[in-house]
Specification:
alpha/beta, three-stranded parallel beta sheet, 23% strand
């Protein structure tokens, strides 16, 4: 059975920039999606180029703003 994700309070980060390290997977990727969904422009940093590119595509495809920085 799938456990539903906990509710996240609504917040607006429009006009803000968030830097997320370890963004290619796990908690980092989850935070990148949440912060971008709240309107932040996100800078994603990790070592795995392909995963970063996929996440940038996902975020920008949903109307967000994201760039990748390979560490």
């Amino acid at each position: 059975a799938t456990v539903p994700a906990p509710a996240v309070p609504a917040f607006d980060l429009s006009g803000r920039v968030a830097l997320i390290t370890g963004a290619s997977s796990g908690i980092g990727a989850r935070w990148a999606r949440l912060l971008a969904g709240a309107g932040a422009r996100v800078v994603l940093c990790a070592r795995r180029t392909e995963r970063l590119a996929t996440l940038v595509g996902e975020i920008t495809g949903a109307g967000g703003a994201a760039i990748a920085v390979v560490a």
